[in-house]
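hey team, just a heads up i'm posting the complex here instead of the shared drive bc the drive is being weird again. everything in one block, sequence lines first with there labels, then the predicted structure for the whole assembly after. its two chains so it's a bit long, scroll down
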Amino acid sequence: MFRKLMTFDEAKQVISEQLKPEALGEEEIPLLEAYDRVLRENVVSALDIPPFNRSTVDGYAVKAEDTFGAEENQPAKLTTRGMVSVGEPPKISIGKGEAAEIVTGAPIPEGADAVVMVEDTDSEDAELRVYRAVTRDENVMKRGTDIKKGETVLKAGRVLGASEIGVLAALGLTKVKVFKVPVVAVLSTGAEVTEPGKELPAGKIYDINAYSLSTAVRESGGKPVYLGVVPDDKAELRKALEHALASADMVMTSGGVSVGPKDLTPQIVDSLGEPGLLVCGIAVKPGKPTTIALIGKKPVFSLPGHPTSALLLFHLLARPVIQLMSGRPATEVKTIKALAATRMFSAKGRRTFVMVKLKRDNLDKRVVEPVETGASGAITTLAKADGFVEIPENQQFIDAGEEVVVSLLKGAL
Amino acid sequence: MFRKLMTFDEAKQVISEQLKPEALGEEEIPLLEAYDRVLRENVVSALDIPPFNRSTVDGYAVKAEDTFGAEENQPAKLTTRGMVSVGEPPKISIGKGEAAEIVTGAPIPEGADAVVMVEDTDSEDAELRVYRAVTRDENVMKRGTDIKKGETVLKAGRVLGASEIGVLAALGLTKVKVFKVPVVAVLSTGAEVTEPGKELPAGKIYDINAYSLSTAVRESGGKPVYLGVVPDDKAELRKALEHALASADMVMTSGGVSVGPKDLTPQIVDSLGEPGLLVCGIAVKPGKPTTIALIGKKPVFSLPGHPTSALLLFHLLARPVIQLMSGRPATEVKTIKALAATRMFSAKGRRTFVMVKLKRDNLDKRVVEPVETGASGAITTLAKADGFVEIPENQQFIDAGEEVVVSLLKGAL
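-- predicted structure starts here --
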C-alpha cells in the first residue's frame, strides 16, 4: 500500500482514467414515475401527430376551389351536410358544393381540403354563404405537422422533466426505458461514533456522516443504502465492506482513514479485489486522508471522519462519479462571485477549500466570511456554510476585499 | 358566473389575498427519508455537543500547571498512568505530576485540564518528559463548544438537504417533524383526448397534460394523484371533480375551458362549494381561458388544453401555491439575459409570454428565438422551449437585438 499524496488534479485524473465511471444498465419504468430519470435510448415516434388532418378554427370544412372568387358582395353558396364533432371520425364526406360545420381540433372530413372561419360565413337552414375565399389547406393542421412517424423526438441522455414526460405521453407511451439508478452503500467507521436513535454511551458522539452522505447520494441522483456505524474491528469491518460491495454499485465510507493505528479501512478495502486502492491521500485541506479504490467495477470512496470535510470531498469527487453512473453529465457546480470579508489562508502546498457563509456588507455588497471548520465546528459549519472558496496550491492567501468565486453547496450537492 | 378577464397582476393578487395559500399540517417521518422536506418547527438541541471535553490532538492529558516553565532544555517530568481510548469513558484519573496517553477525539480524564502534543514529549517506560508548557484548556474542545443544550440549531421552514440532515443526526434524532406534502389531483378533460397506453380511437389524440402536470406537481414539491382523462360529460365530470376534491388538497384540470358549448369545467367547479370561482379568464397570451376557484380550502386550477400553455400557466400561477402549501417560500424563477434573435410581438392588451429556445449566434453571444406555440407546435414546443420571455401589456413588441430576460423552465418548473 502506498502513502504518497496525490495532488487534487491528479486524483481527478485517476478517477476519469482509471475509475472510468459510466452509466449502469437500463430498466423500463412507468412514465408517471420517470421524473428526474435519464432516458436510455432515443425515442422515435411510432405515429404521426396529429394523426389526422385537424381544423385549427371553428367554421366549415369545404373544398377550397368552391370558395374561389368569394367576396363580401359575392358570397359562394354551399350546402351544409351536417356537423363534424371533435374526438370522433367524421360520419360525413364532402362533395362539390358542399360544406360541414366543424370545431377546432375536429378531423377534416373526406373530400374537404380547407376550413372557412365561422365569422366569414352566414347560414340559413342548409344554405351556407361564404364571404371570403380560402386556399387549399387553409386553417388545417395536416397529419404529422407536429411530429412525423419515425422522427426522433427525444435523445438518449435527456433528463426527464414535465415537458419531456408530456412529449412521451403524446406518443401514447406509459413506460419508458431509463438508466438504472446507482445504488450506493453508505457506512461510517470509528470507535467514537454511535448511531442516532440509540442511547449515547459515555465517551461517544452521534454519527453524522452516514446520514449526511446518504442524503448527498440522493441529491446526486443515486439511491443510498444506509448501513450505519460499523464497529472499529478488522473482522467486522471486512464483513461490512464485503456486504456493502455485494449489495451496491458503489461504496461510501467515512472515518477511520487518518494515520492512527486503528485506521483499517484502506487496508481492508485494498484486499477486497482488483485493482484495489487508486488514490491514497490527496494534497487538499481539508480532506487529506481521502482514499479511492476500485474493486472490480465498483468504486469505493473512503472519506474523512469530520462531517464537513466528508461532505466537501463527496461533493468534489464522488458526486460527479454518481452522476456519470446514472447516465447524467457531471454537472458544473453553481458559483457566484463575492468579496472576501477577511484574509483567508491556504495550507502550504495543498489545494485549500475554505468553507464560507454569504453575507451583505454595509454597502449591500455580497461578501463571504470563513466558517470555522476545525474540531470545534463540526456541526455549526454544516448548519451555516453556504459554499466554499478554493485557493490554489501555489497561492498563500486570499486578501480581504479580493473578489472570489464561491462554489455553492446548497442545491448543488 | 362572470366572464370579465382579469389582468395577470389582478389574478396574482386574488391568489395571495383570497386563495391565501398556506402550509398544510405536519407529520413525523424518518430522518433518512426527509430529503427535500421542510422543517415544521425549530429544532432545539437536547444535548451538549460534544457531550464531554475532548482532546483535539494525539498526546498526553495533563494538569496544565504541572507543565509550567517546561522548555526544550528543562522538561517537566511526569509519570504516565496509562492510556485513554477513544469512544470509551476514561478508566483513569490524573493526579498531580501525572499524565495519560490520549488520542484525538478521546475524552479528557478526570483531573486533567490540557493536552500536550505528542511531538512536544518523549517517554521511557512510565516517565514522560514534556518540552513545552501548555495553558489550561489547550488542545481541549470543551463540552458544548459546538452546540449547547437548549440551543436552536435549525429553524422551522428550513428545507432539508445533506447538511441539515447531518445536523439532525448529530443531535441523535432519527425522526423529524416536517410539513405535509400537498396532494394534488390532476385530471384532463376534452372529447378529443384519450389516455396514453390505450389504443388511439380515430379522431382523437393522446392526452399530454395529465402527465406533464403530474410531473410539474412533483417538481414543485407536491404529490400528484393522476386521475387521467375524464369523459366530456356533465355527470361524469362532476363525479370526477367531487372525487378529486375529496382525495386531494388541490385540484388541477386542463382542457375544456375555452368558450365552446362543451366547456363545462368552470361551471361545475363553481357549483361544488364556496367561495367558488375567483378568477375566470386572464388577459394573458397564451392561457386566456385559465380559471381559478377555491372550494372550501382547496384551490382548483383549470388550465388551458394546449400543453405548452397549460405548463406555462401552471408555472406562473399554480407552482407558487403548491410551494406555499408545502411550507416553502415561493421560489423566484431562475432568469438569464440574452439578446432577441428576431422581433417578438405581443398580443394587444394582454401580458404575453413568448416561448423561446436559447442559442449562440455567430459571435457566440447568447440569443433567444421564439418557438412555435400555435396549434401546429403542441409537442415540439414542449421538447424545444428552454424558457419564456415576458412582454408587458403596454408594449407592442421586443425588437431584434434587444436584451431580454429569459425565465428558465428547466429545473425551475
